[in-house]
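Example (one chain per record):
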Amino acid sequence: MFRNYLKIAIRNLWKHKLFSFINIFGLSVGMLVCLLAIIDVNKAMSYDRFHPHSERTFRIITDMWGKEQQHEIYASVPFPVATEIKKRYSFIEETVNVIPARGISFTTADHKTLPAPGFFADPSFFKIFGFRLKEGVLSEAPKTIVLTDVAAEKFFGNKNAIGQVLDNKDWGQFVVTGVVTTTKQKSHLQFDLLISSSSIPSLVQTGKINSSIESWTNPWGTYSYLLVKKGTSEEAIQNMMPAISLSATSKLEVNGAYAKISFRAQPLRDINPSREDMINFPAGTTLGKLLVQLGIGLLTLFLAGFNYVNLTLARSLTRSKEIGVRKVVGAMRWQIFGQFILESVLIAILAMCLSVVLLELTKAVPALQNVLAEMEWTIALALLLIVFSLLTGFVAGYVPARILSAVKPALVIKGHKVITVLKGITVRKILVIAQFSISLIGIILMAVMFKQQTFMAEGEYGFEKENILNISLSGKDYQKLSNELANMPGVEKISPASFTMGMQGGNNTKISRRDQPFYSSSEILGTDHEFIPLMNLQLVVGKNIPADKGDSAGSMVLVNEKTAEALHFPSASAMVGQQIWLNDSVPLQIVGVVKDFHSMSMFFPIFPLVIRYEPQKFNVLHVKVSEGADQNAIFAAAAYIWKSLNPYDTFNAKWFDKELYERHFHADDQWLLGMICAMVLSIACLGLLGMVTFSSEIRIKEVGIRKTLGASVKQLLVLLSKDFFKLLIIAGCFAVPAGYLLSALFLNNFAYHVSIGVSTPVLSFIGLLALGSVTIGWQTIKIAMINPVESLKEE
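Predicted structure:
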C-alpha cells in the first residue's frame, strides 16, 4: 500500500509541475530561514558547556533601583562583593573577580604593538573555569600576565613567551608567566590575555585606573563568580544575597540617583542565552533575540505552509472526484488521509534538500558569514533536519488531508466544490489575505528601519564630519605622528580624542557641584584645544581649553549645555568659572560652554559632557584636510608616515563620514532583512500565482464562451482578476495600521528618530499592489488571449 501511495504522490507531483515547484520552493525558503535560526540557537546554547564545575558555578548579577523606582540590571557587580561573600559564608569554595581591560594594547621589546583585550583575574580563575594553562601559571605577583597561545604567537612568533616583557604606555611593563590553550569551545569570557588582579591596587594608587572600581556602589567594573561546595543548594546561595545587598545599599549616597542595590546568583548555564537584557553584558545573546529569530523562521515557514494548504484546497475540485471514486470502491478515510500526508511529506523532504543547497550557497553572503562560519555538518544535525522535514510535511499536510479525506461522495456528485470556514469566506481567501498582510507589514517595517538607519548614518550630529581622517592610535604617541602629518600638503588641523564621536560613547563617570549636593553621570571626552575649531563646535559662552599643556591643563574644562540642566545651574553662562568635581576627588574649573551636540549615537539622548585635556586617554587622531583634497592620496601618505614610525603595526584609519555611515547603516543587516522580506514576498506571490493559474484554468471554457459572445480582453481581465485584487486591498487594510503601529514601537527605542508619516505605508501598499498586479496579470492575460476555438474544441 505504501508503495502505491508513493507512486501516486510522485505522479501527482509530476503532473502538476507548477504547483509542485511553488510548494517545494516555498517550503525550502521557509526551511532555509528556520535552519539559519536553528544554527544560531544551537551556537547560543553551546556557550560555557566545557567548564568542569558548571553545575556549582554562579555569576553574581546586580539589580539597582532609582529614587523613582526605575530598575536596571547589570551583569557585573561592585568589586568588594565576592570577597565579602567568601569571608562570610563557609560553603563558598572559591571566588574570582574578572575585571575587563578593554581597548588596551601592548608593545614587545622589538617594538611590535598589538591590541590585546583581556581581563584582570585572580589565580582561582583556572580553578573555576575550564580554560587550561599550556605552560606556566597565572601568578599572584603584580605586573604579571598570561597570554593565549594565539596571542603569544602574534606577539613573539616562535619564541618561548614565558619570561618575555610586554609594555603598556599607561600601566607599565608586565612579565609573561603563562600561556593558555585557546579553546574551540564557546565562552562568554573572551580574551587574549589575563593580568594578575594584584596589579590593580598600584594602578589605582597612581591614578592609572579610576579609584571608583573598588567602590561598593559601582556595578560597572567587575564580573564576580562563585564556586560552591558540593551539596550546596541554589536556595542557600540566594538566601545569602539580602545581607550582602543591605551592606551595599547602606553605602549609597543620600542625595544620589539610586535608592537600593540588590544581588542575585545566576547559574553559569543560564548566562547564555540570557533571559534578561542586562547592562554591561559580555559576549553572547539573549533569549529574546533567539525567540525573534525563531519566530521569523517559523513565520516564513508557515507562509510557505499556507501556500501548500491553499493550492491543495484549490485543487480540491479535481481531487474530490478522485476521493469520491476511491471511497465508493471501499477506501477508508484514514487511508486517504495517509495518502495526502505522504504527498506532503515527500514535498517537505524535497524542499529540505533544496534548502540545504541554498544554505551552502548563502555561506558566501557577508551578512550570514558570522552565523555560518562555525557550522559543521554532523549526524545529529542531519537527523534533526530529517525530523524537521517530516514534522513540517505532516503539519503542512494535516489541514488539507483532514478536510479532503472527509469529503462525502454524495456531495461530490451534487457538485459541492468550495470548502468554507465562514459564510462567504473560503479558507483559500483567508490564507491569501494572511500571506500578503504579513508581507506588507514586513515591507513597512523594513522601510522604516531603512529610513531610521539612514537618518543615523547621514544625519546632523552637530559637529563636522566631512574631510576628516580618523586614525586609530593603538597606544602610540600622538604628538610625533601629529608633527609628521602636519607637514603633509592639504592638512589643515589635527587633534586627538579619547573616542570617536557619534558612536556608542566614551568614558562615563560622575560629576558633581562643589557648592550643592547635585551630581550627574557624564561623558568625558579627552582632547586638546584644536578640537573645537576642527570639529566646528560652537562656543556658547566662555573660552576654549588652554593651548598650554602643562600639569594644570587638564583641570580647565569645557562642558555642554546639558550639564547646566543636570547640575541645576540657572544658565549656561552661570557655569563659567565654577568648580565641579570629577568622581568626588578631581577638581575641575569650567572655562567655557559648547552648544549641545551628539557626542554619542542618536540611540541615546544628549548627555552631560566634559571636555578636558587627557593625553593618556587619547585613542584616535582626527586629521582635517582641505575641501577638494585628493582623499586617496592623503590616505596613502598618512599610511606611509604611520609605517615609517611604526613598522610593526597595522595602519587603521577611516574617513569620519564613512565610518559614521558604516557604524549606523548596518548594510549587512539591511541586506539580510531585505533578503528575508524578499523570501516572504516571493512565497506570497508564488502562492498568488498558483491560485490565479488554477482559477484561470478551471474558467478557461467560460472565457472561451464569453469571447465568442463578444467580450473584450479588457473585460475578461477585470472578470478574472477583480476577486484577487479585493483580497490584496483587504490585506492592505489589515497590514497598513499594524505595520504603522509596529514601526512606531521600533522607533520608540531611539532617542532621536524619523517620523513614519503617511508616505511610507502608502507607498509600500502601492508597491505591493503593483507586484500583485504583475503576478495576477501575467497569468490572466495568457488566459484572456487564448483563441476560443482552442478552449472550446473539446466540446
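Caption: The chain has 25 helices and 26 strands.
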